[in-house]
């Protein structure tokens, strides 16, 4: 590809028969993917949002980029309003037959339509298609609706060997030669995605706690832009906070020094975001809306997860206490935050430096809500819950481990901001309660074996004064 290469749309894959031929295969394959959001509800059909040919599907190796909307019955939490269905980004490889190394990537064999007789598979397992994406980013290609952009100050070499990250993720990631990592968003929504917006902002602000985006992948559909992926520097040898915490737990080592350093890193990111982007003051009316949202999420979760119902009255007191403080005239500052902060979103380099990644926010929430200012206590509560998760992942339970880490994290945060999150216990309890309710609903849908972990927190929070 040449610099800023532009490629026309190609006719062979634009036919409606393509989706019809893939439909039975996708109905079987898509719900099994970790990043599929509609688990527990049948797929009733698909509609094609966009299709782009990255490598001709009639060649020995073809590559199709699809944006596909999956139609499903509404869940109780989606209400009665019509829902268009979630849009997913798929990269589909096309071959006559798969070599054994690509067996885990199999989607199926196409019986009819333009790909009849061919085998389709998850292309990210295959180095050649994965290399096509990096080359498009390197050359700032435009291919039909797809647009690839980059930071011209960062070099992207041509000879980087790709490998798919196979760890459990809510999106997909490819590492290129231990130099870059490309995060491909799977559930696609229109608008400015904070996973690109906030790291770009922090880079301009000079915040070294977040890797600066190197390149990004977009789709222009009608009047709206959709963020599809972000390429960032790969921190070689880094350990994510979750794995590190579990490793230290298994060795019986103290983790409080790391938790304290992580508190400092979080505070630096929050302060940089507050400098770069507007902050707002939340008074009685705004807090009333915030509390109403928390209460509604509780009611919806209790309806969906019967095990939560006995604790609902106690959990409501956390939100009621916050509403009472607001009614008395207390105000809070809200700003842009990470939005889904936990140990797995933090990396410690071999030099001991902590960085924060994955600013997408909670994918189940609407994009507009994820981009709203929130109290920083939401992020802090997420990390406090994460220490609790780590403690419960180790058997036998190490008494006091989570409490020690939670305290050290808040201490580190206060060392940078001058404000200890524990000095606002009503807000912190409300945010932690809201997070635990989200966890209960998530685990009930995706990982039922983990449900006892957030339920243990729910019991504690429901009984708190």
Q: How big is the Rg?
A: 23 Å
Mean pLDDT reading:
93
**What is the number of strand segments?**
19
Q: DSSP helix count?
A: 12
Give start-end ranges of low-pLDDT stretches: 1-12
Question: In total, how many domains does the architecture comprise?
Answer: 2
**Main sheet: which strands, in order across?**
1-7-8-13-14-11-10-9
Largest sheet: 8 strands, mixed
Give the end-to-end Cα distance, rounded to a whole number of Å: 63 Å
Helix-strand makeup class: alpha+beta
Q: Estimate the helix proportion, in percent.
A: 25-40%
What portion of residues belong to β-strands?
Answer: 15-25%
Looking at the structure, what is the overall shape?
Answer: globular
Brief overview:
The chain is an alpha+beta fold and 465 residues long. It contains twelve helices and 19 strands.
Can you tell me about this structure?
The protein has helices spanning 17-29, 127-138, 194-205, 241-251, 256-276, 284-304, 312-327, 367-370, 377-392, 401-417, 425-446, 452-463; strands at 6-7, 45-55, 62-71, 86-95, 106-109, 119-122, 142-143, 146-150, 162-164, 172-176, 180-184, 187-188, 215-221, 224-233, 239-240, 280-282, 332-334, 346-348, 354-356. The chain is α+β, with helices and mostly antiparallel strands. The protein has 2 domains: 6-233, no CATH class; 239-463, Aminoglycoside phosphotransferase (APH), C-terminal lobe (Aminoglycoside 3'-phosphotransferase, Chain: A, domain 2, Alpha-Beta Complex). It has an 8-stranded mixed sheet, with helices on one face. Strands 2, 3, 4, 5, 6 and 12 form a 6-stranded antiparallel sheet that branches. Strand 2 (45-55) and strand 3 form a beta hairpin. Helix 4 crosses helix 9 and helix 6 (284-304) packs parallel to helix 11. The longest helix has 22 residues, at 425-446. 40% of the residues are buried. Mean pLDDT is 93; it is low at 1-12.
């Amino acid at each position: 590809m040449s610099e800023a290469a532009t490629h026309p749309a190609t006719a062979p894959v634009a036919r409606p028969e393509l989706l019809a031929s893939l439909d039975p295969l996708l109905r079987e394959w898509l719900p099994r993917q970790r990043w599929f959001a509609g688990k527990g509800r049948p797929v009733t059909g698909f509609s094609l949002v966009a299709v782009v040919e990255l490598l001709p599907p009639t060649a020995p190796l073809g590559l199709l980029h699809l944006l596909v909307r999956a139609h499903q019955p509404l869940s109780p939490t989606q209400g009665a309003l019509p829902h268009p269905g979630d849009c997913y980004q798929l990269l589909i490889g096309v071959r006559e037959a798969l070599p054994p190394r690509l067996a885990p990537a199999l989607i199926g064999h196409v019986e009819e339509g333009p790909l009849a007789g061919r085998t389709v598979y998850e292309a990210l397992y295959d180095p050649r298609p994965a290399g096509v994406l990096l080359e498009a980013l390197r050359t700032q290609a435009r291919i039909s609706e797809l647009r690839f952009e980059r930071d011209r100050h960062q070099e992207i070499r041509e000879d980087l060997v790709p490998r798919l990250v196979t760890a459990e993720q809510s999106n997909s990631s490819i590492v290129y030669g231990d130099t870059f990592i490309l995060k491909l968003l799977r559930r696609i929504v229109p608008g400015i995605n904070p996973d690109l917006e906030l790291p770009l902002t922090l880079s301009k602000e000079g915040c070294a706690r977040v890797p600066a985006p190197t390149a990004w992948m977009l789709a222009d559909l009608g009047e709206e832009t959709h963020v599809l992926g972000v390429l960032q520097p790969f921190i070689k040898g880094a350990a994510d906070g979750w794995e590190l915490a579990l490793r230290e737990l298994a060795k019986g080592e103290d983790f409080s020094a790391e938790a304290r350093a992580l508190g400092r890193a979080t505070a630096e990111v929050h302060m940089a975001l507050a400098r770069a982007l507007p902050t707002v003051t939340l008074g009685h009316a705004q807090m009333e809306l915030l509390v109403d949202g928390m209460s509604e999420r509780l009611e919806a979760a209790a309806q969906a997860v019967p095990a939560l119902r006995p604790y609902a009255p106690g959990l409501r007191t956390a939100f009621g206490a916050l509403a009472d403080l607001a009614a008395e005239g207390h105000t809070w500052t809200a700003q842009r935050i990470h939005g889904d902060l936990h140990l797995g979103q933090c990396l410690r380099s071999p030099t001991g430096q902590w960085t924060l990644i994955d600013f997408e926010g909670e994918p189940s929430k609407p994009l507009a809500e994820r981009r709203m200012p929130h109290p920083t206590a939401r992020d802090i509560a997420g990390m406090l819950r994460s220490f609790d998760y780590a403690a419960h992942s180790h058997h036998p339970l190490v008494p006091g481990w989570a409490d020690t880490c939670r305290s050290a994290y808040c201490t580190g945060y206060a060392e940078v901001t001058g404000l200890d999150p524990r000095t606002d216990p009503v807000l912190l309890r409300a945010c932690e309660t809201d997070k635990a309710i989200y966890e209960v609903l998530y685990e009930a849908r995706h990982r039922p074996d983990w449900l006892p972990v957030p339920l243990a927190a729910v019991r504690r929070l429901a009984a708190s004064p």
